[in-house]
Amino acid sequence: MTRHYSALTLLKEGLAGQRGWRPAWRSPQPQRAYEVIVIGGGGHGLATAYYLAKTHGIARVAVLERGWIGGGNTGRNTTIIRSNYFYPESAALYDLSLRLYEGLSRELNYNIMLSQRGMMMLAHSEMEMELAARSVNAMLINGVDAELLGREQVRALAPILNFDADARFPIFGATNQRRGGTARHDAVAWGYARAADALGVDIIQSCEVTGFVREAGRVVGVETSRGEIRAERIGVAVAGSSSVLAALGGYALPIHTYTLQAFVSEPVKPLMDTVALSPGTGVYFSQSDKGEMVIGGGLDRVPSYAQRGNPPMQEAVLSGLLEMAPALGQLRLMRQWGGAVDVTSDSSPILGPVGVPGIYVNCGWGTGGFKAIPAGGTLLAHILATGEHHELSRAFGMSRFAAGTLIDEGAAAGIAH
Amino acid sequence: MQIFDCPFCGERDETEFHFVSEAGKVRPEPACQVSADTWAAYLHVKQNVKGAGREVWRHLSCGELFVMQRDTTSMVVIAVEPLRKSRP
Question: How many beta-carbon pairs below 8 A join chains A and B?
Fold first, then answer.
């Protein structure tokens, strides 16, 4: 029985010397067969398993993870959450995610430390201000909160930014989403894992999928480093490794894997209590609860599966940061790392069947998968449980590439996202 | 900074090079007989190989297009060969 977390439990454990805590999820041996297998123990895979059990009553579910849960992109992102997208299909998808995030700590009984501190995209010229106004209008029509800020309003929210008269990218204003912000990324993975486990889902770590088992033209299970495991349906949510699984499964994806880097500085006292992104440099940053500046930018220029970055993009991101907030030049960097992200032709995700009976994917989130975890899990769970697209996932099926109905958020946003 | 080898210019910084495409894709012809699925596969589908693969790159400084064999995990360059044909 999973223990309820509360202030009272914390107090009791404090008085009892913290000796009553138990592991938040089991580490079971894999069974021979399940109703559904989810490959990938990141946020999307764990959320899929949780919603399969919670929403659809399917608890004979295994999550198979090659390494440890949340050790891929779920633990490597910059923790930003937002839904300020241009196209109606994207806005509906990402705002579902944001709404689920808003209730997630309570739903999972696990504090994901959601901080809706707002998220600004700066505008650097009169023309960019016109486009920013257009973006804000699109978001409002899509039912997503957004506001257009002038230069002095931006200065009031983030005085650390570069307001010099001779700035290379002067700040004219910004679009702002007040419901945007950050959440604790590990807690999202751990919270979903604990809640899924409590509903009977088996989370199996150190279990690498090495092949698919086929019978009569249908995939009926997987070969793993811990033996064969059978299932009626298989969901694949493995981000940067999606093409590796596709090669094993005999299907093809419109995905390229790139490294996306992130950086944190040494911790300092509070000086930035929102998130700001500069389209001029492609750089964005926020300050973590510990005081570190959390810094992100664009993709590395070279396709790569290496979970580490290369120096030219480090130079571009850090010089962009110093243009954006010159005072940060005094800080030392504490860590730098990279994740392998799955980038599609239109910078939008792929959800649903891939032409091999029994296999369904959740991939192609590219640089923006963390913010989409609750929606990605909800939609893949719906597809696995019903065999049909959800109303919100249909536009993101594989068929859009042949139909030409791309949802080109990369072009709409003008930057990687 | 990684050094790549342009078949025309020799060794240069990686920032002078641009990834173009996976090597070996053939444009389906004739266009009027190509189905939407075939065309979409040509435009969008990638092998996206983990490990050693063949890619088309351009050296931006001289414009040379060439095939680079490269390991996408270790980033080691295995070989480069020009796509340019010598004058007969």
Answer: 69
